Amino acid sequence: MKRRIGFLRPKMTWTDQTRRKLYTLKRENGFGTIEVVIIIAVMLAVVFLFRSEISNFAARLIDRVFKDSIIDSF
Predict the structure, then answer these.
(1) SS3 labels along the chain
(2) What proportion of the chain, given as a percentage, has pLDDT over 70?
(3) Separation CA 69–CA 71 (nearest Å)
(4) How far apart are CA 34 and CA 31, in angstroms?
(5) Hey, where are the domains in the chain?
(6) What CA dihedral angle connects 4, 10, 12 and 13, to 10 degrees?
(7) Comparing C-alpha atoms, which of 9, 12, 11 is closest to residue 21?
(8) Do 22 and 15 contact (CB within 8 A), yes or no?
(9) Rg (CA), the chain
(10) Which of 2-11, 18-27, 54-63 has the lowest mean pLDDT?
(11) Phi, psi of 29 (to 5 degrees)
């Protein structure tokens, strides 16, 4: 039913479109700047706490991937 009478509604004017966009920007949905900064800070803290373990894991992974014995066996 809405599709049938959709063409009867007047077109949105420029001011109506602007008001709708401003309303959308003012809503409280989504992430804010503070939330993003907190997430990045927590991720950096985890990386600094476990940097030696992460380095060892990456080194072992690279050694395992580029080991010559795996390539020669094919």
Answers:
(1) CHHHHHCCCCCCCHHHHHHHHHHHHHCCCCCCHHHHHHHHHHHHHHHHHCHHHHHHHHHHHHHHHCCHHHHHCC
(2) 64
(3) 5
(4) 8
(5) 31-74
(6) 170
(7) 12
(8) no
(9) 27
(10) 2-11
(11) -85, 155
CB-based burial of residue 59 (10 Å sphere; 0-12 exposed, 13-18 middle, 19+ buried)? exposed
The sign of the dihedral angle between the CA atoms of 47, 50, 51, 55 is: negative
Question: 28-55: per-residue pLDDT in tens?
Answer: 666 678 888 899 999 999 999 999 999 9
Sign of the torsion angle spanned by Cα atoms 15, 27, 41, 55: negative
Single-letter amino acid, residue 14: W
- Which one is predicted more confidently, 51 or 16? 51
